Amino acid sequence: MYLERYALATLPRYTSYPPANRFDPAVDAGTYGGWLAGLEAASTLSLYVHVPFCRTLCWYCGCHTSVPNDTDRVDRYVELLMREIDLVADRIGEGRPVVNLHFGGGTPTILDPHSFLALSARLRERFAFRPDAEVAVEVDPRGLDEARIDALAEAGVTRVSLGVQDLDPQVQRAINRIQPFGTVARAVTGLRRAGIMAINADLMYGLPHQTVQHVEASARAVALLGVDRVAVFGYAHVPWFKANQRAIDEAALPGPEQRFEQAEAAAGVLDAKGYDAIGFDHFARPDDPLAVAAATGRLRRNFQGYVVDPADAILGFGASSIGSLPQGYIQNEAHLKRWAQRVDAGELPVARGIAVDGDDRLVRAAIERVLCDGAADLARVADAVGAPVDNLSDAFRRLRALEADGLVVLHGWTLRCTGLGRRYLRNVAACFDPALDAAPGRHSRAV
Questions:
Q1: What is the pTM (predicted TM-score) of this model?
Q2: Block mean pLDDT (10 aa), the chain, length 447
């Protein structure tokens, strides 16, 4: 059911708490160095490597990326990434166990095979990867040739996420991403032939000229390919923040109710194809680790969205990357030149961050359980972080309005989202955020 009041709300996606728009320059390289030194010896790690380059710029994109004018620029970036890896590893010591590695972007597969293998090797030299560690890479199918597929396999990649977005030619022209179904299918076939069997697909709704029929056709197409997971993201039109979005014809964008219908249509197709709904925007086959984690209360949420990642800390490498440690969050310089200058100087290239206190940990834990489980025993959540559950009293008062609208059921200190409330999970989560800035333009729409 479309509820305009909730669908139009601009809210964080809560891939962190506090959200990244509250990070502050007061948390700097010195702070990060101290946090790294303070990591316990047995702490497990997740590594994130950001590659901020693409061959062409998609007009919908909100990521930190650009189109390089020559290969030397990309090669230089890889050299600096290796230096940053060494800077961090030197501060925490050798042999830290890694349970997850994720290459994001941009387009990580813009790297030539030699560079990708060298970068992967440096990470394995400086950190101790567990035999069952997941190694995931975000891939643009349009540039995935045989040599790059072979390099992914040789580097031990276990999961690939394919950017698909929408398969209709008119929509693709409107977002500057021409990518026929055959291109995606060839990528899937090549990856499986190389032994990379775990494949995700990213779709979008709310794009220019997009209709319910387009969304349904794209969802059916990726299901036909047998992908294991599908993420369905709503396009956030923020041309004042991302200049490339100014190329999009605003008159061609679907309205709020049409966006909602498209999100529901994608969910309907994927449900009919046997996928389990995970949180508010992911879907997975019932035997996929993401679905298993959701069914057993082990689902997590971080900057990659919904994940199966038990790490104690996430270390980010590359321009704009974000890290998460027990003490708080840090973000690297997003400006490529400033990031390069600081790494060149032997500095940790941190631009900003935020330390978390006991109340933050309580709110973060409550939001994560709501977004992952659609329910929460808040007394148990508070006990797990060593905080009084009464600290969530204000949140419970805010939830009463959502209960009156049929989104949640409250009993004692327990919360359960209704079927209707599952579509508005971000609205439910926002009730726990005492410092929410819901100003238009600062966050994306809830649906």
A1: 0.95
A2: 89 93 96 95 95 95 89 96 97 90 96 97 96 97 97 98 98 97 98 98 98 98 98 93 93 96 97 97 97 96 91 97 96 97 98 96 96 96 95 94 97 95 95 76 73
Tokens 């933050």 correspond to 360
Name which of 187, 214, 264 is nearest 447 in CA terms: 264
Distance CA 160, CA 197 (A): 8
CA distance linking residue 130 with residue 133, whole number of Å? 5
Reading the block at residue 37, the tokens are: 């030194």
* Contact predicate 278/291, CB 8 Å: yes
Alpha carbons 106 and 296: distance in angstroms, whole number: 33
Q: Cβ neighbours of residue 216 under 8 Å, at least 6 residues apart?
A: 265, 266, 268, 269
Rounded-to-integer distance, Cα 4 and Cα 420, Å: 13
Q: How far is CA 373 from CA 31, 271, 370, in A?
A: 33, 18, 5
DSSP H or E stretch at residue 134: strand 128-139
Show the beta-strand stretches assigned E in 240-291. Answer: 276-278, 282-284
**Residue 86 to residue 84: CA distance in whole angstroms:** 5
- The DSSP annotation for 269-309 comes to HHHHTTPEEETTTEEE-TTSHHHHHHHTT--EEETTEEE--
CA distance 237 to 206: 9
Max alpha carbon distance in the chain (Å)?
61
Q: How many residues in total does the chain contain? A: 447
Q: What are the structure tokens assigned to 98, written together?
A: 């890694």
- Strands annotated E in 65-127: 97-105
Cβ neighbors of 273 (< 8 A, separation 6 or more) are 219, 220, 223
